[in-house]
Amino acid sequence: MLNGFKDFILRGNVVSMAIGLAVGSAFTAVVTGFSKAFITPLIGLATGSVGDFSEAKFTVGRTEFPYGLAIAAAIAFVITAAVLYFLIVVPMTKIQERFAKEEAKDPKAEKRDCPRCFAEIPAIASRCAHCTSEVEPVAEALLKAGLDSISVPAAR
Questions:
Q1: Strands (E), the chain
Q2: SS3 of 22, please?
Q3: How far is residue 152's CA from residue 136's CA, in Å, rounded to a whole number?
Q4: What is the rounded CA–CA span in Å between residue 56 and residue 65?
Q5: Which of 14, 67, 90, 101 has its CA 20 to 30 A from that of 40?
Q6: Are 53 and 40 in contact (CB under 8 A)?
């Protein structure tokens, strides 16, 4: 029973997830600190408030509503999301696009209609599979398939 638990804990994806959570937690603390130290005072200067913007609140009756905390959390979220997107997601997407292998195209995937029986046939076909009439292959489809030309077999 303990061996199963040990195997589960030492599995690569669990350890990676734990490391990711720890790094994410530290990153959130850094962004929150940056937001409180720089962004919140700048917003306070722009709006004419003095002091810590995150301590802004209003009172209705004897109940206080600290709306500044919600605004500070929203600012920290937007900064975190922007940093993650622009510093991690965008570069990773570009790297994946650069190293993505181009899939081999199926030469029979492009279709057209037979001029005699109007059945659907591959664009590179030189004979209709339905009515057996000879047809001229589409030149563009031959180039996409990597074929220069297909010689039509002589009639018997």
A1: 58-60, 63-65, 111-113, 120-122
A2: helix
A3: 8
A4: 9
A5: 90
A6: yes
Asked which of 42-51, 95-104, 116-125, 136-145 is least confident by mean pLDDT, the reply is 42-51
pTM over 0.90: no
Give the chain's length: 156
State which amino acid sits at residue 124. Answer: I
Residues in a beta bridge with 120: 113
Report the distance separating Cα 66 and Cα 86, nearest Å: 31
Closest alpha carbon to 108 in 129, 85, 134: 129
pLDDT digits (tens, 9 = 90+) for 16-33: 788 888 888 888 888 878
Q: What is the pLDDT of residues 73-106, one digit of tens each?
A: 888 788 888 888 898 889 988 988 888 776 666 7
Distance CA 44, CA 55 (A): 11
